[in-house]
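#random but structural
TW: two for the price of one
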Amino acid sequence: MSATDRMPPTPAGEAAALARRLDLPLAVLFGLGVTIGAGIYVLIGATAGRAGMHAPLAFLLAAVVMAPTAASFAELAGRMPVSAGEAAYVKAGFRSEALALVVGCMVIATGVISAAAISRGSAGYIAELIDLPSAIIVPSVVLAMGAIAAWGILQSVALAGLLTLIEVGGLLAIIAVGAARSPELMTRVPEIWTGIGETAVVAGILSASLLAFFAFIGFEGLANIAEEVKQPEKNVPLAIFLTLGLSTLLYMLVVWIALVSVPHAELATARAPLSLVFQRVTGASPTVIVAIAIVATINGIIVQMVMASRVVYGLADRHLLPPLLARINRLTQTPLEATALVIAAVLLLAVALPLEGLAELTSRLTLAVFAFVNAALGCLKWRGEAPPAGAYVTSRWVPWTGLILCLALLVGDLAG
């Protein structure tokens, strides 16, 4: 057991602390749960419309673009395994509490806005099975998921892990049945890179990769539960890389099965592309995939709430927000006040604002945060500040590459 895992009982009169409850498998499940979700259910059709049979390459390219930022987060999580990780990284890199607070608030905003958007999306799926108005479903979903997030980190992540297994299981079922029923699956693989040198093909892949990029957002949430992970200097970097690698493999397989099973022109115009693929591949009722989509969305709500509440707690613990928000409940060992604030913000946005535009705002904020984090690590390396012994260390050029890629995508998105 490492020093960071030893959590002695809190003496009477002293503040409670976050408990290190999560091992590597649970951390990976958390990472997969916050990364794989509603995105893959809606992005397949759009990427197919832009890249056609080359869509798997778009997801691979997006993963390659994301890799330097993942490496930066992996090193920084080992250097500073704390809640509100991004804010701590920026403070250390730029030596500015004001900038750290700005970045921390941006991270909180992305979690809250994302959870609100997912809540509205989840309500739409639930309404397919239960005849209730959105005005009832949305608050019910937010409050129920908020209660789970407040219950305890082990319970929250264990449930999120179970839901992740269900949503990933649905995608694996599509892959397995598709592979068994599509004998041309392997023989058509050359179509992925056919015509790769043509200008139109390259343009389509690049355009689709901008969409595919957003399917990988979420792994950075692992940095914000580092205080609750056992041996964080080892397990958090491993969890980040495993999350990115497994997500990439799963996305590419699902997309290829979809393209082989359904003509990409039809897939591109489908309102529920994965539901269409599921029906073609398995012959089963779309109710099954609707149920899995509900699981995927409510899972996303839980993990986003957990992430956002830990950032609120981390900022308050560093005296950047009111100290009340840094309190840890002795029974649940979670920051209840911080979680309650996040729940209230999610509920307000989910009820008051439409779904349109929430996802785009989340993505832009995330890219901006990624740029700050890469720059912060670049500054630490430039000053020669060595990480703790045993921590993961990436090359000096990696954070600067991540910074350039993030800024390029952000500028390209805003210009478009």
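TW: number two ↓
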Amino acid sequence: MSELPLFPLSTVLFPGGPLSLRIFETRYVDLIRRCLKEQSGFGVVLIKSGAEVGEVAQLAECGTTARLIDFESRPDGLLGVRCLGGERFRLLERRQQADGLHVASVQLIPGDQARPVPGECAHLQALLRELLPRVGEYARVDTHYEEAGWVANRWAEILPLEADERQALLELADPLARLAWVAEWVARQPAASSA
């Protein structure tokens, strides 16, 4: 069990995935400064009810650690940061500091066991290999096209899914089950069935 500062968002971060943020609230500017100084990370967790700015009523029980890989001062005066997803964690207890920052006791969840992409999902692997280089934010992401969990996570990020669907995929412990869910979703789409 460890303590982790939280960045509640309306999105889901997956291990190995990119995340770009525009920082304007003082509590998060201070958090980013501290992360840069201490070379530490923070936790990204989905807001189930509430808003990103102001009061957060309910958070998902599972999130992902994030580490900073780059930052810049944006033309609009805000701080822009790019992060990379690390390990999944389970939220045990959460409290809010006087400055409004959420901090939680978390338990890290073991990473995906390296499993090869099964033959019936080879089409997803090949298509992802074509698509991902065209998406700019993936330029600094290490690629592991041979791993089922990595392929499933990238599809979970780029498919037009609802946040609760992404969250359910994040919480799936078995990378093959996650990839099978993605394959079923793709198979249900009209373009996929007419091809």
